[in-house]
Amino acid sequence: MSLEENYHAIKQSLPESIQLVAVSKTHPVEKIQTIYQLGQRAFGENKVQEMIAKQPLLPADIEWHLIGHLQTNKVKYIAPFVALIQSVDSKKLLQEINKQAEKNQRIIPILLQVKIAQEDTKTGMDIAEAKALVEEISQGLYLHIALKGLMGIATFTDDENTIQQEFLRLKNFYDELAPLYQLETLSMGMSHDFPLAIACGANSVRIGSAIFGERDYSA
Ligand SMILES: *Cc1c(COP(=O)(O)O)cnc(C)c1O
How far is CA 23 from the centre of its chain? Predict the structure, then answer.
């Protein structure tokens, strides 16, 4: 299938209430442009270097989502334009985002990344840590940050039960916090597990290979 066909197929399978973030990492700006012309505005990148290389070459109304681990010393490069940082996984990072947002005289929307997978390789805070940070944010100390919600990545497995349990754990935590802190975004689900994520309550999905095809890391 062509890029256009892939995109339309994904769009058609998503209920209208679900936000689609097209994960364009490793793919060239030409492909992003193609999807943009079909109406897509939110794009996800996991590396700062790649995001700042692409951003000036593409339309200014693209909403850039940072979805990968972010080092504090790189926040300054994306602070002027990033639309949502989905992968906030420490207080130190939160402080730096707040500082850089202030320098740019803006408020940066963020999600806290919660570790739900069993694998050690997946980053994120545990639930207790996230809860403490949400409470701290609600004290009003971070004037240049807008906490919008939570993000999680499930274990990479064919076992749907495991994935479902992980998604539901995050959904329960989200439901506990959302009314207290006016959260609106629960970002769960990738190409291989997004229907399950939606069934478990996600309202934003991050889809890469199902739109753009397999990534070629050797290129
Ligand atoms: C790469 C990536 C995705 C998209 O993965 P696909 O399997 O290609 O859909 C989603 N979320 C994060 C955090 C990623 O790094």
Answer: 9
> Is residue 157's pLDDT more than 80?
yes
Give start and end residues of each alpha helix (H) in 56-109: 75-78, 91-103
- State how far the Cα of 66 lies from the Cα of 45, in Å rounded to an integer: 5
Q: Phi-psi bin for 182: left (phi > 0), alpha (psi -120 to 50), beta?
A: left
Question: How much distance in Å is there from the Cα of 22 to the middle of ligand 1?
Answer: 9
Q: What is the Å distance from ligand 1's center to 143 Cα?
A: 30
Closest to 25 in 3D by CA, of 58, 56, 54? 54
pTM for the model stands at 0.97
Radius of gyration of the chain (CA): 17
CB atoms within 10 A of CB 3: 16
Distance 86 CA to ligand 1 centre (A): 12
Q: Which residues line ligand 1 (CB under 6 A)?
A: 23, 25, 46, 67-68, 153, 190-192, 206-210
Please check whether residue 155 is in contact with residue 119, taking contact to mean a CB–CB distance below 8 angstroms.
Answer: yes
Structure tokens at 55: 């951003």
Average pLDDT, the chain: 95
**In sequence order, what E strands does the chain have?**
19-23, 42-45, 63-66, 84-88, 108-115, 145-153, 185-188, 204-207
